[in-house]
Amino acid sequence: MTDVLRRVGDKWTVLVVVLLGQRPHRFNDLHRGIAAISQRMLTRTLRGLEEDGLVHREVFATNPPSVEYRLTPLGTSLLEPLSALAEWAVKHQPTIAASRGVTDLQPRNT
C-alpha cells in the first residue's frame, strides 16, 4: 500500500493525472502545462504511471515519431479522489494558513 500511496501522492503525479484527465497530451504539451517540472522528472513520472497501469503511452509512426499519453480506466478512476482532495485543500487553505501564521500559502520548494 505504501508504494501505491507514494506514487499517487507525489506532486508531479497529481498534476500529470489532472492534465491527462482533461484530454490526451503529447509530452511537450504536458511539459508546457507543468512549467516547474524538468523533462527528466516528467519522463520518470510518466514511466512510473505507465508501469502502474494508470497511463497509456501510444507511439505514432510519424517522422519523427510522436507519442501521446492518456489515462487508462484505472487512471481515470483516480480523478474522483484527487478532486475530493483538491476541494478539501481549497476549503481548508485559510485555516491551514492561519495555523502557520501566514496570510497566503505559497508553494514551497521541496
Structure description:
The protein has 110 residues and is α+β, with helices and mostly antiparallel strands. The protein has a single domain, classed as Arc Repressor Mutant, subunit A (Orthogonal Bundle). Helices cover 60% and strands 13% of the residues. The protein has 6 helices and 3 strands; from the N terminus they run ααβααββαα. It is elongated, with a radius of gyration of 16 Å. The two termini are 23 Å apart.
Quickly list its features.
single chain; 110 residues; alpha+beta; Arc Repressor Mutant, subunit A; 3-stranded antiparallel beta sheet; 6 helices; 3 strands; 60% helix
Can you describe this structure in just a few lines?
With 110 residues, the chain is an alpha+beta fold.
Terminus-to-terminus distance: 23 Å
The helical percent reads 55-70%
Q: Please indicate the percent range of residues in DSSP E strands (runs of 2 or more).
A: 5-15%
Computed CA radius of gyration, to the nearest angstrom: 16 Å
Q: How are the strands ordered across the major sheet?
A: 1-3-2
